Amino acid sequence: MMRRVIHTSLAPAAIGTYSQAIQTGNTVYLSGQIGLDPETMQLVEGVEAQIRRVFDNVQAVSEAAGGSLADIAKINIFLIDLANFQLVNQIMGEYFTEPYPARAALGVASLPRGALVEMDCILELAD
Predict the structure, then answer these.
(1) Largest Cα–Cα distance in the chain?
(2) pLDDT digit of tens for each residue in the chain (127 aa)?
(3) Which of 1, 56, 117, 119 has a CA-to-CA distance to 109 between 20 and 30 Å?
(4) According to DSSP H, which parts of 41-127 are helical?
(5) Residue 17 in contact with residue 106, Cβ under 8 Å?
(6) Which segments within the chain are labelled E, that is strand?
(7) What residues contact 26, with CB distance under 8 A and at least 6 apart?
(8) What is the pTM (predicted TM-score) of this model?
């Protein structure tokens, strides 16, 4: 099965040895996105701004793969403080409609660059 590298300048460039996303068949695996502004490569300020930036970054990579947020089958959310889960849930409701993707939310000790939230996803594209 062929693998296709997905890249867009509308999301932050990879800051390590990984791709923004890899497509195999109709499945697209998005690498973790943190709240980096793609133009400045700096974290945006505050938890709400970071959550929104992460969803914007995920949307940009999804669209570069030929899909949309509606094609996300699974999303993993990593939070430094699980007290922010309700805010994630509220903001996620602004980006997604039913049927919502499967989701996991995990509390973690730290994230790259001191980020407050990180998300990775799996998309399933239509034939």
Answers:
(1) 42
(2) 689 999 999 999 998 899 999 999 999 999 999 999 999 999 999 999 999 999 999 999 999 999 999 999 999 999 999 999 999 999 999 999 999 999 999 999 999 999 999 999 999 998 7
(3) 56
(4) 47-64, 85-95
(5) no
(6) 3-6, 21-24, 27-34, 72-79, 102-107, 117-124
(7) 124, 125, 126, 127
(8) 0.95
